[in-house]
């Protein structure tokens, strides 16, 4: 379907339209971006298509541009804010009276990527659900309190970063223990949602459309014991998780000897390196928690690409991994994961 915007004919099926929309949000042009989607809606394009075929893929491109060091973090944040405003404009144009049950939609504790789950919330609303959208970074106890107060038929939990899997597990178990089934989504749960099932989720959806289908045709799920999958992790996970600060601090103290260019780091680079090591430790802990090296190695490959785009040589990453490994030599599972990560960092 072709629509006419202030810049000429555009079609949602034309890749040129997506590039046009990306330029609008990248330039901070809220008015132009809202006008673009309003023209689509006026032309009869379904709001679900606007959200899932335009806004969501554009947000993915924004993340890729930041990772490739083509956009600054400030530009990425500004563009995301425009995307949120555009999504709000779509929602305001499409009021729907609830005809289904009530669902709570939230990001797990520590998860700040709220736009994907907001798109899910709006897609469910268009399907007739009464949606309580709680947003980003919802602590487990507050989530459970909300469930007691509202009595929803389901909880949809989003996790985009695998390092948050232990917290996601706590939230899933807490929800199911009070009798509310959980559907999960987000790339943090792994390929095909493999870690969602390991953490006890009642269902996993590959995207918003899949979630709508599952909730419409395969819900509620057969009840199961929420405590069958309530206990994961072991002493190695516990040690790495609790020793995070010491591991990072010790690695930073020894970094200059292991990687001499670090001696010339200013405060900004020093802080960024400490943050990188903290994230590496978090992903290591998550890999130990679910018992899958892929949690760690995927992150290391991504980190290597991000650092390479910023001119940081691979030896810097390998040095950091080695400094962590040296401190964990008495923990065979952790050192095995780090050894695999070192191979990926080469």
TrEMBL record:
GO terms for biological process: homocysteine metabolic process; tetrahydrofolate metabolic process. PROSITE patterns: B12_BINDING. Keywords: Cobalt, Metal-binding. Signal peptide: none annotated. The keyword Metal-binding applies. InterPro entries: Cbl-bd_cap (IPR003759), Cobalamin-bd (IPR006158), Cobalamin-bd_sf (IPR036724), Met_Synthase/Corrinoid (IPR050554), Meth_synthase_dom (IPR036594). One of its GO terms (molecular function) is methionine synthase activity. The keyword Metal-binding applies. GO terms for cellular component: cytosol. This is Cobalamin-binding protein.
